[in-house]
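tokens incoming
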């Protein structure tokens, strides 16, 4: 099964995804990179020339394509990749979702300090800034919560510490499944 990293922009999905993939000896894919490669445009340019609906259609197509790989992959998803119900169903059916969770204040500071994010990513509302982050995060949080198999609060943690926590949760879950399987097999 795939391991999907979900969460708001600035939560560290791309960085954590690369490190986690190396640790797990799996390939890593980043949906935003795939979108930009396929469209030959930055996400900011897509929003300004094609519009959000066109972007979300391409994003849903990328989610589907990634999900069909037979090789278990670590996938860093764009923050809004979970918005469509069809994509949510695909994620749940083909992998485990790890939500990299953080407060709006923390995310806003990270977004503001990352020049690459500012150049590649558009504002998602007229207000922009902190108000946008707080508003959109509040709307997406119930989706992230519903989809997540593992939740990691990323504030004050290094990417390596976040990967350690994800690995520990995965190992605990696997051990629990093995215990259930053994009990089921023995008739207990």
């Amino acid at each position: 099964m795939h391991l999907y990293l979900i969460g708001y922009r600035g939560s560290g999905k791309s960085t954590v995804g690369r490190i986690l993939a190396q640790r797990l000896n799996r390939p890593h894919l980043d949906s935003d990179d795939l979108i930009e490669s396929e469209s030959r445009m930055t996400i900011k340019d897509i929003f300004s020339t094609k519009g959000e609906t066109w972007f979300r259609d391409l994003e849903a197509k990328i989610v589907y394509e990634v999900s069909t790989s037979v090789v278990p992959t670590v996938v860093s998803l764009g923050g809004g990749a979970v918005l469509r119900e069809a994509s949510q169903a695909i994620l749940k059916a083909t992998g485990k979702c790890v939500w990299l969770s953080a407060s709006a204040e923390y995310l806003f500071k990270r977004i503001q300090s990352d020049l690459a994010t500012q150049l590649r990513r558009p504002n998602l509302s007229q207000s922009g800034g902190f108000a946008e982050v707080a508003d959109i995060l509040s709307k997406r949080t119930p989706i992230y919560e519903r989809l997540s198999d593992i939740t990691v609060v990323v504030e004050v943690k290094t990417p390596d510490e976040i990967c350690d926590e994800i690995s520990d949760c995965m190992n605990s879950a696997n051990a629990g499944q093995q215990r259930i399987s053994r009990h089921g097999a023995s008739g207990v």
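note: The mean pLDDT is 88.
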